[in-house]
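User: Sequence for Transcriptional adapter below. C-alpha cells please.
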Amino acid sequence: MDRLASFGNDPFDKPPCRGCSSYLTEPYIKCAECGPSPFLLCLQCFTRGFEYKKHQSDHKYEIMTSDFPVLEPGWTAQEEMALLEAVMDCGFGNWQDVAYQMRTKTKEECESHYMKNFINNPLFSSTLLSLRKTKDSRFAEGAIPFKPTDDPPRPTFDSVLSRDMAGYMPARADFMEEFDNYAEWDLKDIDFVDDDSDILRALKLSVVDIYHSRLKERQRRKKIIRDHGLINLRKFQMLERCYPKEVQELYDVMRRFARVVGPIEHDKFIESHALEFELRREIRRLQEYRKAGIKSFCSAKVYERVKRMREDERRKRTMLCDVLQYIQDGRACQQWLSKQAAIDAGITPAVTTITVSATGRRSAPPLNLTGLPGTEKLNEREKELCQVVRLVPGAYLEYKQALLNECRRQGGLRLAQARALIKIDVNKTRKIYDFLIKEGYITKA
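Assistant: C-alpha cells for Transcriptional adapter:
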C-alpha cells in the first residue's frame, strides 16, 4: 500500500464516493488499477467490499491522507496547507488571526514555522533565484524593465527598522498613523435622514466632499512615498551618501520638488547635476594646468607630484607653530619630535595634533594652564586633572565647591547626584568625581 497526500482540505473539491455518493473525508481509498478517472471510496464502502463495473474488491489500492509530516515532525501536510491558506486570507504578519483560523497552532508556532520554512528556507531561496534568472534571461534581448522602488521590507513590530519606516505596514500598504489621521471624525456623527432640509442636506454633502478631498490628498502623499522609495529610510540615506557633499546639499534642497515630478525624472535631474559637478571639477583642474603652462598629461603628472611635495614642505613649516603653541607642554613637544623623526625617515606624518587613546577614541592634547586664573590655587594633582580633562581652573574650583557642599549636606554623594549637580560632559564629571573620592574630599553615599 502506498500512502499519498491529498492536498485539498475542502471535501467539496474532491469527487464523491462511488459507493454511497457522500463527500470524502480523509483518509479515503483510491483504486490503483481503475482509471484513467480516479475511483474513490470512503472507508465504510471499502470495508464492505464495494464493487462496481470493472472495479473489484481485490484490486490494489492507495490510502489518500495528508496526516503525515512534510517539513517538520510536528506539522502535518494538512496543517501546512491550512497555514498557507490562512496567511493568504489574513495577510502576512497577522499571526493572531492566522492561529485563530488554524485552530491547532498558537500564534508563535505559526510565525516561527512560516518564517523558518517559507521565508528563510535556502531551498525556496535558490528556487526563487533560479526563477528570477529565468525571468531576467527572458528580457535580455528586449528593453530592461524599470522598477521605481523595491518591495519594502517586512520588519518585526517595534524594531529599529520598523521605527525607521514610520509605522508602515507592508502587508496592508497603510501606516499606523496616516496623514490627516482624524479626517473621519467629521463624518462619524453625520446621518442622512428623509426629513432633512435642502440646506442641511447640501451642508452634509459638502462635508462628504471635503472628506473625499482629504482622502485624495492622503492617497497622493502615500503614492509619492512609495514611488520615490521613501519607506525604506536607511536605503534612501545610503543612496544619498553616494553623491559628493555639494550634490547632497542640492539633493536636500530639491527633495521638496519630488512631489511634482515622477521618480525617474527626479533621479535624472539629480544625476545630471552630479555629472555637471564632476565636469566643473574636471574643467577647473584643466584650467589650473593651463594656467601653469602644462600642455600634456605627462607634464600634469609631474605637476601633481611636485604640488604634493610643496604641500608637504608647507606642512613641515606649520608644525613648528604647533610646537610653539604648546611649548610648555612636554607631551606636545614629544609629539612634534616624533613627527619630525617621521619626516626625516621619509614617512608622511599626521597633520593634526589629535592623538588616539588605547580604547580607539580620539583625544585632544592636554590643556595649557599657564596664565589661567585660579591656577595658583591648585595643587600638582589637581593641575594634572585639569590638564587631562581640559577644564579651566576657575570652573574646576566652582564644581569642586558645589560637590563638597552637597556631600556635607547629605553625608555622602553618588555619581548620579554629581552628574545632576554639574551640567558638563558625563565623562568629565566621572573623572572629577573619582578624583575627589580618591583624594578624600568627598565620600560615597
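Confidence is low (pLDDT under 50) at residues 1-9, 138-148, 351-360.
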